């Protein structure tokens, strides 16, 4: 991205003159499915005329709303914060101190890049939406605003070089390809396409399409009169082809989303830049990071890679938003991930040398959900079909028992005066940890099974926790050990100041 322009703090400003167009595009995306459904399946007869012009009227209303938002939106850049006023009938005035802004996001789609503009989003802790979402600003003004927030309203000195940030991690194209190979982004896109088809077209149309396609395929296969071995080989080849195509789609999506990935640090603030067609730049102060997650799937281990993600104290919607600051290292070697943790958490000893393991014989607690599911599934199929094939789900039990034993061998926790960490998983492994002075609450939980066997679960809550990350909890602790650890951490929380 280009250099930032100087900021004039005196005048009240409007958004970019073309901002109404980008607001309109965003609104059209939200109402695209209803508008298309109204246009295609609006019906005929007496209501045909109104069904035909209905989408045009709806688009006209959206254009008026977008123009009104442009003319009523104003912002002022102050010394200590940002003031924003908007609304025509219901008017709002918000003052946002720079110190309360946790995350700054600059987003550029292809349309943004053609117009030389960017969307700016400012996030703080809590709430259901960002503090400010500015669609759109001129790119140099957006960068200047980001720079001003980074320095808490104080512009850098004239002699400060523009590229003063330290590079912590960059991903060459080969690493981005590996990221696509270990991810399931292709499956997500296919599922979203099926979901969109079911919403856009009537259920009967989609169902008829799959039924017709299935009959043609099975009819063609039956005419070939293949043996069971040839049929099995053909099915395996089709499955393999589908897997390869999905992986290729995942690689393509990874190249689009993570091309040019760069993690940098400036004045204890982390910034991530990525994107091939659409550019994304998001930054957050190091002290806003609440918890960490290291993940290593089976394909990660084959390629000797891991991923490192963080949870930050920002608006709740950021947990599922692809523009939120989450991925510190989408893919990197284990050594690079450990080095990043040591750099960003200098007081923590990472990787941990010793872990407190689960008590012996608790593997069956991990195996119990699998056993119950297999038994219930077998019973349901037996009642429904009543033949020997319904016993096939029971064949999963030996594998489930073996996997549970392997998980129990790896499950454990580690606690010192600075850090609490939990590890789990076997086929897909993860490590979850947080600084003790980032913990907000402790909770002891006991299920009926826990009460019967004298165990407890200790759950540790941080700001911004949740989403797709595994919970930060220590399970299957003997009651005495759980209470002792609870008392130890509670004493640490009482003596330490909560750091946001």
Q: How is this structure best described in words?
A:
The chain has 500 residues and is an alpha+beta fold. The protein folds into four domains: 12-156, no CATH class; 182-258, no CATH class; 263-358 and 411-495, no CATH class; 363-407. It contains 15 helices and 21 strands. It has helices at 19-30, 32-40, 48-72, 110-115, 139-150, 173-182, 185-200, 203-224, 228-258, 298-303, 334-344, 363-384, 396-410, 448-453, 479-495; strands at residues 12-13, 74-77, 81-86, 92-97, 103-108, 117-123, 132-138, 166-170, 262-266, 269-274, 279-285, 289-296, 306-312, 327-332, 356-357, 412-415, 419-424, 429-435, 439-445, 455-462, 473-478. A hairpin with a 3-residue loop joins strand 16 and strand 17 (419-424). Helix 1 (19-30) packs across helix 3, helix 6 (173-182) crosses helix 9 and helix 12 runs antiparallel to helix 13 (396-410).
How is the secondary structure organized here?
Layout: E1 12-13, H1 19-30, H2 32-40, H3 48-72, E2 74-77, E3 81-86, E4 92-97, E5 103-108, H4 110-115, E6 117-123, E7 132-138, H5 139-150, E8 166-170, H6 173-182, H7 185-200, H8 203-224, H9 228-258, E9 262-266, E10 269-274, E11 279-285, E12 289-296, H10 298-303, E13 306-312, E14 327-332, H11 334-344, E15 356-357, H12 363-384, H13 396-410, E16 412-415, E17 419-424, E18 429-435, E19 439-445, H14 448-453, E20 455-462, E21 473-478, H15 479-495
């Amino acid at each position: 991205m280009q250099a930032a322009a100087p900021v004039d703090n005196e005048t009240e400003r409007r958004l970019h003159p073309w901002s109404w167009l980008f607001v309109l595009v965003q609104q059209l995306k939200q109402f695209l499915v209803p508008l298309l459904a109204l246009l295609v399946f609006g019906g005929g007869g007496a209501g045909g005329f109104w069904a035909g012009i209905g989408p045009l009227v709806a688009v006209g209303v959206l254009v008026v709303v977008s123009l009104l938002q442009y003319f009523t939106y104003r912002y002022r850049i102050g010394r200590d914060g940002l003031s924003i006023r908007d609304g025509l009938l219901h008017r709002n005035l918000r003052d946002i101190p720079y110190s309360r802004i946790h995350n700054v996001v600059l987003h550029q789609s292809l349309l943004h890049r053609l117009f030389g503009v960017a969307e700016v989003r400012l996030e703080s802790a809590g709430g259901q939406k960002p503090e400010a979402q500015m669609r759109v600003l001129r790119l140099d003004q957006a960068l200047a605003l980001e720079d001003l927030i980074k320095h808490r309203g104080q512009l850098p000195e004239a002699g400060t070089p523009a590229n003063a940030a330290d590079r912590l991690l960059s991903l060459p194209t080969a690493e981005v390809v590996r990221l696509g190979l270990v991810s399931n982004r292709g499956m997500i896109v296919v599922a979203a396409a099926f979901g969109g088809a079911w919403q856009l077209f009537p259920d009967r149309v989609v169902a008829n399409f799959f039924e017709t396609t299935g009959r043609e395929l099975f009819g063609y296969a039956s005419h070939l009169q293949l043996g069971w071995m040839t049929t099995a080989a053909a099915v395996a080849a089709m499955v393999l082809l589908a897997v390869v195509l999905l992986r290729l789609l995942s690689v393509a999506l990874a190249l689009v989303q993570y091309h040019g990935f760069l993690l940098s640090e400036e004045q204890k603030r982390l910034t991530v830049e990525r994107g091939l067609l659409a550019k994304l730049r998001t930054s957050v102060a190091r002290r806003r990071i609440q918890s960490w997650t290291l993940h290593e799937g089976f394909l990660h281990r084959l390629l000797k890679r891991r991923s490192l993600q963080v949870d930050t104290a920002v608006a709740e919607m950021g947990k599922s938003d692809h523009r939120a600051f989450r991925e510190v290292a989408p893919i990197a070697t284990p050594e690079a991930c450990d080095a990043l943790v040591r750099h960003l958490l200098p007081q923590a000893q990472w990787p941990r040398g010793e872990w407190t393991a689960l008590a012996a014989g608790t593997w069956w607690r991990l195996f119990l959900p699998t056993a119950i599911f297999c038994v219930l599934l077998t019973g349901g199929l037996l009642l429904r079909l009543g033949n020997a094939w319904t016993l096939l789900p029971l064949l999963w039990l030996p594998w489930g028992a073996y996997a549970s034993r392997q998980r129990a061998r790896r499950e454990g926790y580690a606690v010192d005066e600075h850090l609490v960490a939990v590890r789990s998983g076997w086929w897909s492994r993860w490590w979850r940890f947080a600084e003790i002075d980032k913990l907000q609450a402790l909770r002891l939980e006991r299920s009926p099974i826990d009460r019967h066997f004298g165990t407890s679960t200790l759950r540790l809550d941080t700001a911004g926790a949740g989403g797709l990350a595994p919970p930060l909890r220590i399970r299957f602790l003997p009651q005495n050990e759980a209470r002792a650890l609870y008392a130890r951490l509670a004493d640490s929380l009482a003596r330490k100041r909560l750091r946001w």
